Amino acid sequence: DTGVSQDPRHKITKRGQNVTFRCDPISEHNRLYWYRQTLGQGPEFLTYFQNEAQLEKSRLLSDRFSAERPKGSFSTLEIQRTEQGDSAMYLCASGPDVYEQYFGPGTRLTVT
Amino acid sequence: AQKVTQAQTEISVVEKEDVTLDCVYETRDTTYYLFWYKQPPSGELVFLIRRNSFDEQNEISGRYSWNFQKSTSSFNFTITASQVVDSAVYFCALSEKEDSGYALNFGKGTSLLVTP
């Protein structure tokens, strides 16, 4: 299966710790998106990349959030100094163009 | 402001009933795309359909059909002869040319429960 993969699937961390999530897109997809989904809500857009360029990051929730896609392949999303409000599902999606986005299984973060 | 409104939070039907999920969107762009995704209990979002703003032709795929009406800014989704496996949360989403590289703006979702 060559779908979008995300690692880890679940992460439990204590408040104040840093966490990093990884997303491996479908190969040859040059667009990669990160979303956050809280309970009972639809996914909320955070940031996106075209190849290695991060073209939109104003929607990242705070300066504690950052993302990278160093070689235009996999991407990482880091949250520094986690807070309980950061508990959510973090979703990655990739697409070959602007018309399609295929989602990964997500990383569920729990901040205690 | 919410760009996509799914007014129905939860719907419960009995198997074999038809059910329509409503979606109303708001945009000033002339070029935009509308989507429906399914999120089963396993959590992974599954793409169902994409329509662009220049194509109002309705679409049918098996038991699924979609009605796109620009005049009312609606993109409704109908499941005919529902089945238990249709139980999931369904999201309508909008992507616009002028917004963050066509990032998806999702509604809050409609939770569909189909009982035997």
Structural account:
The complex is a heterodimer of chains A (112) and B (116). Chain A is globular. Chain A contains no helices and eleven strands. Chain A is mainly β. By secondary structure, chain B is an all-beta fold. In chain B, 0% of the residues lie in helices and 51% in strands. The radius of gyration of chain B is 14 Å and the shape is globular. The mean pLDDT of chain B is 93. Chains A and B meet through strand 4, strand 5, strand 9 and strand 10 of A and strand 6, strand 10 and strand 11 of B.
Task: Offer a few descriptive terms.
heterodimer; A: 112 residues; mainly beta; seven-stranded mixed beta sheet; four-stranded antiparallel beta sheet; 11 strands; B: 116 residues; six-stranded mixed beta sheet; 12 strands; 51% strand; globular
Rg of chain B (C-alpha, Å): 14 Å
* Topology order of chain A in helix (H) and strand (E) letters: EEEEEEEEEEE
Main sheet overview of chain A: 7 strands, mixed
SSE pattern of chain B, N- to C-terminal: EEEEEEEEEEEE
Q: Low-confidence segments of chain B, ≥5 residues, pLDDT <50? A: none
Percentage of residues assigned to helices of chain B: under 10%
Task: Identify the most extensive interface between protein chains.
Answer: A-B, 26 and 24 residues
Individual helix count of chain B = 0
Q: Level of helix content of chain A? A: under 10%
Radius of gyration of chain A: 13 Å
Give the class of chain A from helix and strand content and strand pairing: mainly beta
**Low-confidence spans of chain A: pLDDT under 50, at least 5 residues?**
none
Form type of chain A: globular
The overall pLDDT of chain B, averaged over residues, is: 93
Beta-strand portion of chain A reads over 45%
What general form of chain B does the structure show?
A: globular
Instruction: Provide a count of the helices of chain A.
Output: 0
Through-space gap between termini of chain A = 34 Å
State mean pLDDT of chain A (0 to 100 scale): 93
Total beta-strand segments of chain A? 11
Largest sheet of chain B: 6 strands, mixed
